C-alpha cells in the first residue's frame, strides 16, 4: 500500500529510481573498485586546485575525500574537472564530473561528457 504524501503525490514519486528515470539517467549501479589514487580537482567558476583521495572508482563516478581545501569545498551540483594519475596503469586521465552529493569533505561525483559541461553551466546560470 502506498502512502500518500503532500500535494497529491505518492511515496513512489520520490524514489531515487523514479527521479533518475525522469531525468533520463541510468539507475543501474556500476561496480565500484576500491582505490587509493590521488586526484586534482578544479571547480568550474572557482579559482584554484584541490587535492583529493579517490576512495572508490567506477565507470560512472567516484567517491572522493578532499585532502587540501582552498577557499571553497565543492557542493552538490558543482561541475568540476578531475585529473587522476592511475599509478598502476601509468596513465593520467582528465574527466569532467558533477558533484551529486557532499558531506563534510566527502564527495560523490558522476562523470559527464565534456560536451555536457557547457550545457549544464548554462542551465545553472539561467536559474538565477
From TrEMBL:
Residues 38-116 form the PilZ domain. One of its GO terms (molecular function) is cyclic-di-GMP binding. InterPro entries: PilZ_domain. This is PilZ domain-containing protein.
Amino acid at each position: 500500500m502506498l502512502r500518500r504524501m503532500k500535494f497529491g503525490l505518492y511515496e513512489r514519486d520520490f524514489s531515487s529510481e523514479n527521479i533518475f528515470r525522469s531525468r533520463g539517467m541510468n539507475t543501474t549501479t556500476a561496480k565500484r573498485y576500491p582505490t587509493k589514487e590521488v586526484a586534482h580537482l578544479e571547480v568550474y567558476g572557482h579559482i584554484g586546485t584541490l587535492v583529493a583521495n579517490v576512495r572508490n572508482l567506477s565507470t560512472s563516478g567516484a567517491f572522493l575525500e578532499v585532502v587540501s581545501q582552498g577557499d571553497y569545498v565543492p557542493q552538490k551540483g558543482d561541475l568540476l574537472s578531475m585529473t587522476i594519475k592511475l599509478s598502476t596503469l601509468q596513465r593520467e586521465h582528465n574527466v569532467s564530473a558533477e558533484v551529486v552529493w557532499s558531506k563534510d569533505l566527502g564527495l560523490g561525483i558522476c562523470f559527464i561528457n565534456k560536451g555536457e559541461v557547457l550545457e549544464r553551466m548554462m542551465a545553472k546560470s539561467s536559474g538565477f
